[in-house]
Design brief:
Keywords: 4Fe-4S, Iron, Iron-sulfur, Metal-binding. It comes from Clostridium bovifaecis. Its cofactor is [4Fe-4S] cluster. The protein is of the alpha+beta class and 346 residues long. The chain has 13 helices and 15 strands. The chain has a six-stranded mixed β-sheet with strand order 2-1-6-3-4-5, sandwiched between helices. The protein has a six-stranded mixed β-sheet with strand order 8-7-12-9-10-11. The protein is globular and about 55 Å long. The chain starts with 8 loop residues before the first strand and ends with a helix.
Length: 346
């Protein structure tokens, strides 16, 4: 097996037969497809027929972090989930960050493949080599925040990292997400595929270490990247404080910020209502993915004069244009509330 970056194992779980298999990751697959989305597309192409029902038993969910996930490389805690999309009927691939990606690596796996369909709601508990399929009937119907809390309490493992679905995924809404912490695999309806399998959540805890094959060369490359990040006139001075909200003003200045289903794009301004100043007035800190010094995910608390006071969420640019400009909403507190609801319901 390739040394460094890879754990060398594929975990395959069949929810129909309850069979759990650990396979060796082929060295040639690692060389040809690297990891993450590459692994996902490779296994989907090889194992899932193009004519399967996306919400049927034969579809698969393929989770794969990258080779740098779990190392000290900055901005590398990413994971791809690949499936046949119920939204498009084609390849569905969605990405997420946070701590779930590295935890799967720490548990010893480069790929997690979920097959089949359980007759009853279940969740997966993966702790290094110990893998269990556990009942989740009492979790069915819970929102994503409560699901994560209850599972951690049930397992007596507060350091577990969890990816789960909410009511949207359970009800097979074709744009449903998979939520880990407050982050989302938000594209292509991957949450509906998870719901179609009666799989409520995946809880992971790992104690292993991702090795580096050439330590000195890795340290040099990491140092070079960190220096380049520090020298950027935008990354730390602006992006780490504003996150993707800064794109609202950039696209508005170009006249391309989406407005009212593109009917008034370039004509109506949203900068005063949802731009940088409004966001800074509601700033409550930031959240970092594992090993990332930037912390671009910005926490925003609905303002004191709002009827949504006390509502906290972490909107991204996609939130500002979809809940904001596209629907003609120029009120940041409303967008904070909608983001909170969307994450909670999955």
């Amino acid at each position: 097996m390739i040394k460094g970056g890879y754990m060398g194992k594929v975990l395959r779980i069949n929810l129909t037969t309850k069979k759990i298999i650990t396979e060796e990751l082929p060295e040639q697959t690692a060389k040809d497809f690297i990891g993450g989305a590459g692994f996902g597309i490779k296994y989907l192409f090889d194992e899932v027929s193009g004519d399967v029902d996306p919400l049927g038993e034969e579809n698969k969910l393929i989770f794969a972090p990258g080779p740098l996930s779990g190392t000290s490389a900055p901005c590398a805690s990413r994971i791809a989930v690949t499936t046949k999309s119920p939204l498009t009927g084609a390849v569905g691939m969605s990405l997420s960050g946070g701590y779930f990606p590295v935890e799967l690596k720490f548990a010893g796996y480069d790929i997690l493949i979920i097959e089949g369909r359980s007759e009853e709601p279940v969740y997966l508990w993966i702790k290094d080599d110990i893998v269990r399929i556990r009942p989740a009937k009492k979790l069915w119907g819970m929102n994503t925040f409560d699901t994560q809390i209850v599972i951690k309490d049930e397992l007596n493992e507060q350091n577990a990292r969890i990816a789960c679905i909410g009511p949207a995924g359970e009800n097979l809404i074709k744009m449903a997400s998979i939520i880990n912490e407050k982050r989302a695999f938000g594209r292509k309806g991957v949450g509906a595929v998870m719901g179609s399998k009666n799989l409520k959540a995946i809880a992971v805890r790992g104690t292993q270490k991702v090795t580096i094959a050439k330590e000195e060369e890795f340290k040099q490359a990491r140092s070079f990247m960190l220096s380049a990040m520090k020298e950027s006139p935008v990354l730390y001075p602006e992006f780490s404080k504003l996150g993707t909200n800064m794109v609202v003003e950039a696209t508005s200045a170009l006249g391309i910020f989406p407005s009212e289903n593109y009917q008034t794009t370039g004509e109506k301004s949203y900068v005063e209502g949802i731009g940088v100043q409004a966001n800074q007035e509601r700033a409550k800190g930031s959240e970092h993915c594992y090993g990332c010094p930037v912390g671009c995910s910005q926490l925003r608390l609905a303002g004191g004069n709002s009827k949504y006071i006390g509502t906290l969420s972490d909107p991204e640019y996609e939130t500002y244009y979809s809940f904001g400009g596209q629907t003609g909403v120029n009120d940041l507190d409303s967008i904070i509330l909608l983001m909170n609801y969307a994450t909670n319901w999955g």
